[in-house]
Design brief:
The complex is a heterodimer of chains A (356) and B (438). Chain A has 356 residues and is of the alpha/beta class. Chain A contains 12 helices and 12 strands. Chain A has helices spanning 51-58, 86-92, 104-107, 114-126, 130-143, 149-152, 162-174, 192-209, 220-226, 244-249, 254-262, 324-335; strands spanning 9-20, 23-35, 40-44, 67-76, 79-80, 97-100, 180-184, 212-217, 229-234, 237-243, 310-314, 317-320. The longest helix of chain A has 18 residues, at 192-209. Chain A is globular. With 438 residues, chain B is an alpha/beta fold. Helix content of chain B is 39%, strand content 19%. Chain B is globular and about 95 Å long. The chains are: A alpha/beta (356), B alpha/beta (438). Chains A and B meet through α8, α9, α10 and α11 of A and α9, α10, α11, α12 and α13 of B.
Chain lengths: 356, 438
């Protein structure tokens, strides 16, 4: 069940390119990471940074052409998914690696009853009989907290609200008890209070089932509370990789630093917000050198000429920058004595009467 | 003020918030209804859960079959009585036509019930002061965008007043309103949909100058260039089309267009929601810079509570068409009083793992109810962890709980502002509410 080093998933030097009329888009370019069982990994990045393509590559859902997984290894359970025959991948996809996507309306078939869509999973992968699969579907809907599940299981997707649909997606994803759940922006299309519900749900289900999770999002707030480790992507590359707490406290990359500072701080009053200047890069035409160099405060001559190295600034903490060590040292100096970036012990007062 | 109307609505008068300043915009008892046409009875049964689809379909079929059988029988009887004559054939034909007409009318109208309206905005009173940014937050479908649009009359208000410099915008003729729009502008959420794809950037920014005859020829060109510079777009782009720009740049074009007429008041309707994180900060900073330079007043509508905290000086919280709390931004975030606001604030994920680890979230149960048939009494009672029986019956008025801090909840009052410390079952705000409702 587990690979050589106790990892559930090992991604090595993954490269996924898209061949377009505009040239080759290196959507994912040399991504490497490990995921231990029961761990939650966050992948953060702006649109076009390659975070979704990374995950689609892991389950081999890249449409070819125009896409192509050029090189790399995705070792899951000791076997390289990229080199397995398609039939074998199908046995893993959905059963052992499940996915939930941002927009639950487009991922559910509007013409099929929820029950049938849920039953498909267990009948196909676990060989359940119709009756077994139906009972399991009801049970899964109950697990994800859909009220009146026995009746609603025969409803159609349009009869469910956005939050409820996402719950159905989660029920579907978890119905074969996968070892890995890939959640691609699971709460971004939802309202704040519903988002909180869905995130709490993923958290509790994860604790109950011990599933590993890869959580893809653009919202730094979401990953802060949910993940153990974090990857920051930019222009198809991993810019920084570290345990979540460490990355937030002592970022070792100018891009991460900028991202963290540009999120409005709910405690601070008004005043100009830190902004990363310029525009996200055109991945089809990347400049030589560091792709972030044109927007970077700290850029020097070397940055626009040479591609930066991936520097290990601390244990398990890597940063893609010519000046990673300096940036990291700066963060450390600023964060000590108290690790916590800014002085905010209790950010938002929680109503103490929040009884369940 | 407005005529008192029915007794259930909260008072039109707002307690004075800032005695120093005259409000730039005063909204009084503004209501916006959307007509959804007649409801289908079958749908209502469905939503009430009494019948499911199959049962409804069966019932329809049985009804139609019965009508057909009865009419066929009558035809047969007529034929038997009159014998096979020309008249009998005619009668049979007439009855046949009646059957078809009945079936068609039943399909078209028989299934219709009462007219349905959505009260997207329901009796909202609000002041926006000169030079401030009023944040308007709430979940999707709560009516915040409709409120913003109703101020500019992009959506016609059903009743109530919108006073801009003491002129009621709701009463103006179309032409007069058009003139007023010089002072009142809007920035839309979707920079893709709000720019005409067939116009160049120069033309887009110039259009308001032509419409209001503010500048011509060379002067207009200069003004367009200056505007583009103001919002941080290079003059080189003037001949380009919207599709050549990224989301953030398009939003800048939208801002330049809004600024072209030198407005005093701008409704910013989710201006950063469609943008990337690093670009959001750029747009927020731009809006703030412009506010300083041009003494603008903003109504900043957003579901992003972090952004609102950053830009707004005061914040109003909406739920299902009503304002449930309004106060200084700091007070809303640090000391929310109304249970919905509490839940909303606590749901915001904070980008700090240490904080997130120690936080207790109030996770609300259930979804936002449908605005077609909003809950009676306090509209939040279906999801409120503090709701008592009275909450189902009494519409809570928006009252001043603390200085300049208004909340709509009968379970708190000026004497007992913290709902946690109010003994269970008690509703100290009920006196105030009943005093107004009676």
């Amino acid at each position: 069940m587990i690979t050589r080093n106790g990892n559930l998933l090992e991604v090595r030097d993954l490269r996924t390119y898209f061949h377009t009329e505009d040239g080759t888009v290196k959507a994912v370019d040399g991504v490497t990471f490990n995921l231990r069982p029961g761990e939650t990994l966050g992948i953060v990045g702006e649109s076009g940074s390659g975070k979704s393509v990374t995950n689609l590559s892991i389950v081999r859902l890249i449409q070819s052409p125009p896409g192509q997984i050029v090189s790399g290894e995705v070792v899951f359970d000791g076997r390289d998914i990229l080199r397995l025959p398609e039939a074998e991948v199908r046995r893993i996809r959905g059963r052992r690696i499940a996915m939930i996507f941002q927009d639950p309306m487009t991922s559910l078939n509007p013409f099929m009853k929820i029950s049938r869509q849920l039953m498909e999973m267990t009948r196909l992968h676990l060989g359940y009989s119709k009756a077994q699969a139906y009972a399991h579907a009801v049970k899964m809907l109950e697990t994800v907290g859909i009220p009146d599940a026995p009746r609603r299981v025969d409803g159609f997707p349009h009869e469910f609200s956005g939050g409820m649909r996402q719950r159905v997606m989660i029920a579907m994803a978890l119905s074969c008890q996968p070892e890995l759940l890939i959640a691609d922006e699971p709460s971004s299309a939802l309202d704040v209070t519903i988002q909180a519900q869905i995130l709490e749900l993923i958290k509790t289900l994860k604790q109950e089932t011990g599933t590993s999770v890869i959580l893809v999002t653009h919202d730094l707030g979401v990953v802060a509370g949910m993940t153990d480790d974090l990857i920051v992507m930019y222009a198809g590359k991993i810019f920084e990789q570290a345990p979540t707490r460490e990355l937030f406290a002592v970022p070792g990359n100018p891009y991460t630093k900028g991202l963290l500072r540009s999120v409005p701080d709910p405690t601070s009053a008004r005043g100009p917000l830190y902004q990363i200047s310029g525009l996200p890069p055109d991945v089809a035409h990347l400049p030589p050198g560091c792709p972030f160099a044109p927007r970077c405060d700290r850029a020097e001559e070397i940055c626009s000429k040479e591609f930066p190295p991936l520097v290990e600034v601390n244990q398990d903490h890597h940063s893609l920058c010519h000046f990673a060590k300096e940036v990291y040292a700066q963060s450390v100096a600023r964060s000590s004595p108290s690790i916590g970036m800014r002085d905010k012990p209790e950010l938002i007062p929680h109503p103490s009467a929040g009884k369940k | 003020m407005t005529s008192s109307g029915n007794t259930a609505t909260p008072p039109a008068e707002l307690p004075v918030i800032d005695k120093k300043a005259e409000p730039l915009i005063s909204i009084r008892n503004l209501t916006v209804h959307f007509d959804l046409g007649r409801e289908r009875i079958s749908e209502r049964r469905e939503t009430n859960g009494a019948w499911n689809k199959k049962e409804i379909d069966t019932a329809k079929f049985v009804k139609l079959a019965l009508i057909t059988i009865v009419l066929t029988l009558i035809t047969l009887v007529v034929i038997v009585v009159t014998g096979r004559t020309v008249t009998s054939n005619l009668i049979a034909l007439v009855i046949g036509v009646v059957v078809v007409v009945l079936i068609i009318t039943h399909e078209m109208f028989g299934d219709r019930g009462a007219r349905q309206t959505v009260k997207a905005v329901d009796g909202v009173s609000l002041d926006v002061f000169e030079g401030e940014t009023l944040g308007l937050v709430g979940e999707s479908g709560c009516g915040k965008s409709t409120l913003g649009r109703a101020i500019l009359r992009l959506t016609g208000p059903t009743s109530g007043k919108v006073l801009f410099r003491n002129r009621d915008l709701a009463q103006l003729s179309k032409r007069q309103m058009r003139e007023q729009r010089r002072h009142l502008q809007i920035i839309f959420q979707d920079p893709y949909a709000s720019l005409n794809p067939r116009m160049t950037v120069g033309e887009i920014v110039r259009e308001p100058l032509d419409t209001f005859r503010l500048a011509k020829g060379r002067k207009a060109d200069e003004r367009v260039q200056a505007l583009m510079e103001t919002v941080g777009l290079s003059k080189r782009f003037i001949k380009r089309y919207p599709h050549e720009f990224s989301g953030g740049q398009r939003q800048r074009i939208g801002i330049a267009r809004a600024l072209a007429v030198d407005p005093e008041f701008i409704v910013a309707d989710e201006p950063i929601s469609a943008l990337d994180v690093s670009i959001q900060a750029q747009i927020l900073n731009l809006l703030e810079k412009l506010q300083h330079e041009k003494k603008l007043t903003y109504l900043f509508i957003s579901h992003d509570l972090r952004a609102v905290r950053h830009v707004a000086s005061r914040v109003a919280v909406m739920y299902l068409g009503k304002i449930v709390e309004i106060a200084d931004a700091k007070a809303i975030y640090d000391d929310p009083l109304m249970p919905y606001t509490k839940a909303l604030i606590s749901a915001v994920p904070v980008p700090d793992p240490t904080v997130e680890a120690n936080r207790r979230r109030v996770v609300l149960e259930g979804d936002v109810p449908s605005p077609i048939n909003p809950p009676k009494g306090c509209r939040f009672h279906t999801r409120c962890p503090y709701a008592i029986v009275a909450c189902k019956e009494v519409v809570p008025p928006l009252v001043e709980i603390k200085p300049n801090h208004l909340a709509a909840c009968i379970r708190i009052s000026a004497e007992q502002p913290q709902i946690e410390s109010v003994p269970s079952g008690q509703a100290p705000g009920l006196v105030a509410a009943s005093g107004i409702n009676s």
